[in-house]
Amino acid sequence: MPNSQVQKNTILEVKELNAWFGDFHAVKNINLKVEQNDILALIGPSGCGKSTFIRTINRLHEEVPGARVTGEVRLLGQDIYKMDPVKIRRQVGMVFQKPNPFPGLSIFENVAVGLKLSGIQRKSILTEIVEKSLKQAALWNEVKDKLNEPGTSLSGGQQQRLCIARALAVTPPILLMDEPTSALDPISTARIEDLLQDLKKYVTIVIVTHNMQQASRVSTKTAFFLSGELIEFGDTSQVFTKPNKQKTEEYITGRFG
Amino acid sequence: MDSEINTLQQLKHQISIMGGYVEKALEEATYALIARKVEHLDNIDKIEEKINEIHVVIDAACFKLLAKLSPFASDLRLILACFKMNNDLERMGDHARNISLGTRMYLSRKEIPLEKDFLQMTNEARWMVKAALDAFVTKDAEKAQKVLEHDDVVDQLKDRLTQQMKDLIKKDPDFVESGIDLILFSRNLERIGDLATNIAEDVIFIASGDDVRHGGIAVDG
Predict the structure, then answer these.
(1) CB contact under 8 A, A213 and B70
(2) Selection from A58, A50, A56 nearest residue A17 by Cα
(3) In chain A, which residues have their Cβ closer than 8 Å to the Cβ of B72?
(4) Are residues A252 and A143 part of one domain?
């Protein structure tokens, strides 16, 4: 059966979403849907609102003094702005530009920390989930014999995969990644990009990237932001070969930005 | 010459130069045939050499630009289209040379008064080449569409001319060789028209991203 005929579940639905920093209107009236197994790439020049947008999906944006949000963000049908923000942040994994393993915690503890916070204490369960998460993050073979060593002892690329494993441990429906490879070398970047193709079987991914080649390589959908507006949203193959909007064309061919 | 092509603008310029050589080769070959002036064939081998040289240069430049620029959208479409147009132009040069080689023989045989259809076919084929190249330079999809509409005209003229030559040969076997020559010339002109059509389709692809080949068959993915 052709892919277009396969019924997919909507994981994330954003309706009329706006975000402000004080008086500055950073994200303007965004509407989009992300389906199961999609990898959505957010592209656009610096300051276009893509990182702010991603931070509205796990309610991190409102932590900034003076910041506010209107509109709806529905995760598996539930409006996250009507839920406990702490619970949301536990559910929605996020990986940042710079790997940030918790200092002082071992590799094992770094992955287990979210599970423990959500009340799982039994060692056998923790061990099982940590191993599964490290395997999903393609890190298990490199760390299985040194799980008690500090997470910060790993290389940059390994630390980033450790952060991915940490995010996956709580089995989030969606994984947010804000320029996750911009601080990594090309080989570590390639490993993370390969990893994303495996991960999309388990988790829907939203990734912010400045690297156009990366967006075209890894994503199934692409959203182009400019000055806080969503200019174009569509299948990645369409956006990068035959964009519908002139502004998208100009940006991805390097005419501006 | 490869190192001179570092931008898409330079690539377009080289395609235009190559197109100019193809037009010149076709003009000289058809003029020599129609006006029975064999001296006009002397330059064609040199023009053909130039075409072959640029053919290799443009191939290498497309390869290099794809690797260096990692292009998207209209830039990607332009490079892919130039890569294909490059081959089509080189083939056009070969067909012009075929006409040139045949003309030397043809002019030594029993003369057939050239019919109106042959002259029209020559003009149509040359117009198609020129219009396709103009459409490329100005990125004019409407003009390219007009080229596509002319392809049937050339095909019909070729069929008519072939029939006329068959009838003539049956009536007077002295015209066998020159009649076959004219059939071959018309086949070369028809192929040139087809290749001009390919270029026009590429121009539409560059301008709009639409693949109109074979009636625009939809392709997934």
Answers:
(1) yes
(2) A56
(3) 212, 216, 240-241, 252-253
(4) no
Q: What is the amino acid identity at position A240? A: F
Residue from B72, B78, B220 whose CB has the most chain A CBs within 10 Å, to mutate? B72
B72, B77, B208: residue with CB nearest A216: B72
Which pairing describes strands A174-178 and A93-95: parallel, antiparallel, or unpaired? parallel
* Number of domains within chain A: 2
Superfamily grouping for domain B2-215: Phosphate transport system protein phou homolog 2; domain 2 (1.20.58.220)
Residue A27 domain boundaries:
8-92+176-257
Query: What's at A15, amino acid-wise?
Result: K
Tell me: the pLDDT tens digits for A26-49?
A: 999 999 999 999 999 999 999 999
Other C-beta atoms closer than 10 Å to the C-beta of A107 total 28
ipTM metric: 0.80
Q: For residue A180, what are the CA distances in angstroms to A96, B54, B190? A: 6, 44, 56
Q: What is the pTM of this model?
A: 0.86
Residues A46-81 have pLDDT tens digits of: 999 999 999 999 999 999 999 999 999 999 999 999
Residue A4 has pLDDT above 70, yes or no: no
**Is the Cβ pair B72, A212 closer than 8 Å?**
yes
Residue of B nearest to A235 (CA): B221
* pLDDT per position as a tens digit, A108-157: 999 999 999 889 999 999 999 999 999 999 999 999 999 999 999 999 99
Measured between CB atoms, does A162 come within 8 Å of chain B?
no
Of B70, B71, B73, the CB nearest to A243: B73
Whether residue A1 is predicted with pLDDT greater than 80 in this model: the reply is: no
Distance from CA of B141 to the nearest CA of A (A): 15
- pLDDT of A3 above 50: no
- Segments of chain B with pLDDT less than 50: 1-3
User: In chain A, which residue's Cα lies nearest the Cα of B77?
Assistant: A241
**If you search the block for the tokens 């050589």, which residue do you land on?**
B21
